[in-house]
Specification:
7-stranded parallel sheet; two-stranded antiparallel ribbon; alpha/beta; 345 residues; disordered C terminus; single chain; globular; 9 strands; binds zinc ion
Length: 345
Amino acid sequence: MTPREKVMTAIELKHGTVPVVPQITYATAPIVGISFQEGMNDAEKMARALVAGYKTLGYDGIYAGWESSFNLVAEAMGCTLKSGAGGMPSVSSGVVGETADVTKLAGVDPERDGRLPVHLKAIELVRREAGDDVPIFRYVPGPFTLSSLLRGQSAFLGDLIRNQDLVRAILRPATESAKRFAEAAVEHGADIVVVADPMASTSVISPKRFEEFALPYLKEVMTAIGKAGGIPSLHICGMTAPILRKMVETGARIVELDHLVDLKKAKEEIGNVACIQGNIDPVSILLRGRPEDVEKCALNCIAEAGQSGGFILSSGCEVPLGAPLENIRTMVTAAQGPGEENQTN
Ligand SMILES: [Zn+2]
């Protein structure tokens, strides 16, 4: 079976070999000897590292990206980024100070705005270099998280209590931008579009707020992905056990779960309606753990959720920069068995 066939079998909830797709992007930079910063503005370097990761480590899907999609789209909508730890950018301040500012916000043009064209080009290059046998995953921002960045996170959480009209007003252009970037990603070669909405987790907001301020907008984005010919997936880090059914209700065919969520219970609750992906702890296991910790955790995930198909072994969130490649290799071997780790067709 090709990696694409393995992943599609899991998405179709059929029994088959458990595919393994770590959410690894910039952590592949050391394989080709570049830094995080060298890849972030250069489609060719970014793609070279991403394809090298796939060919060297032999996993079953490529995440074609390099930094948080919500930062990228917030930047394309006018936010300024600042450089944080390890050169990793984050949004320094929002662009919506008052209601009047919202009317100036329009959905992005992914072919033109910010660094979105660089990322679309990288998807094309990955497709060309890695071939058609491997599925390409691409993160796009969830409307709720993107809105929180456009407004500033603490102000936005305050608005959820005191100024819900403003929240709804910001969600409109944010949803439009997410849809447009998602459609462009499919057009440029992405197979699976992963909507990342970490601010919508129950670690941050209540299930009731999720239902009102995240769910309807996520549904719009998932529908747009499906219409464009892509497979919609939903990634919410942190705790999501109380909203698993609502995550499926968005229309996502894959639900990506972070390490806090009990995989066995999740499988029982939604395993017959959506493919589950997860959930090795990216920091304490993949970054700081030993290969034997990774193996134990990977086999445990497979035992809990991978026995009857409909499961993709993955990290709970993005693999951190500096995670030992040996740990990723161990994760791949745990799913594929020894001797197959370099199989890339
Ligand atoms: Zn995450």
